[in-house]
């Protein structure tokens, strides 16, 4: 057995699936918690191994479009760092952003999709609408990338090429924020280049954003996300609840069950559930925040992940560390 497979085999259980008092399943993974001074306070699994942070990289991508010369603020900057739910106010602002930079909707290279939020997806389909690139949850990020290319005079058609100047700039920002080199570049679900970091590097990156000097691109992104969390996620999403209920907190989830959070004093965390089960995100996040010393009613809301039987609650996903 290789060392990497051994590391995978011994990763701890972060959450367990309990139905009718019986533990019927487990979600393993890795997690790191940083103290206010940046030191590692808790490490589970292998938080120094590279992972794809997926959409948890979006704050760094948003900071890069500012560094490219794009002027965004407020809701627009929050949406540039978003995995939006596809609610009407999200889609309307993406359309406005494209129009403001004289960009056609056809310039978006996001794959056609339904709204990320299931409630919005049902309403969208009931209205007779079909999958669309604008509706894809990364369309705000892509609109900002296209606008940055327009401002910088860079090619628009190839904006998703890893060799494109914008993507090279994004990699520089990711590496600087995470304090480590990007070890692998892949392709995210939206088609954009995806830079791998360790979970420790991801937690450091979020910590660096909340502690950045006012007026820097990193701090501007953090401030916009925290001021307008409903544009980062949606009205029914844990990232929004957390940033609303714990002022100064920066939070962003990513696909395949990745989550990163930084508190305003520099405490931070990042984790990934190995099997990608997003149902485990809330319970693990609530427990990790408690490990950071956070005490708030919002933790119970985020951490509640019921299991149903016959339409009734018969169990839960619960943290196991």
Characterize the structure shown:
40% of the residues lie in helices and 20% in strands. By secondary structure, it is an alpha+beta fold. Strands 1, 2, 3, 8, 9, 10, 11 and 12 form an eight-stranded antiparallel β-sheet that branches. A two-stranded antiparallel sheet has the order 4-7. A hairpin with a 5-residue loop joins strand 2 and strand 3. The longest helix has 14 residues. The two termini are 27 Å apart.
Which structural traits does this protein have?
8-stranded antiparallel sheet, two-stranded antiparallel sheet, 321 residues, alpha+beta, single chain
Sequence-ordered SSE layout with sheet pairings:
Elements: H1 3-9, E1 13-19, E2 22-34, E3 40-44, E4 50-51, H2 58-67, H3 74-80, H4 88-100, H5 118-126, H6 139-152, H7 165-178, E5 185-187, E6 193-195, E7 197-198, H8 199-211, H9 217-227, H10 229-232, H11 238-245, E8 250-254, E9 258-262, E10 268-273, H12 281-291, H13 297-303, E11 306-309, E12 312-319
Antiparallel strand pairs: 1-2, 1-12, 2-3, 2-10, 4-7, 5-6, 8-9, 9-10, 11-12
Helix pairs in contact: 2-6, 2-7, 2-9, 3-6, 3-9, 4-6, 7-8, 8-9, 11-13, 12-13
Helix content: 25-40%
Radius of gyration: 19 Å
- How many strand segments? 12
The biggest beta sheet reads: 8 strands, antiparallel
Unreliable stretches (pLDDT < 50, length at least 5) are: 1-8
User: Number of helical runs?
Assistant: 13
Broad shape: globular
Q: What percent of residues are in strands?
A: 15-25%
Secondary-structure content class = alpha+beta
Spatial separation of the terminal alpha carbons: 27 Å
Strand-and-helix sequence, N→C?
HEEEEHHHHHHEEEHHHHEEEHHEE
Mean pLDDT: 96
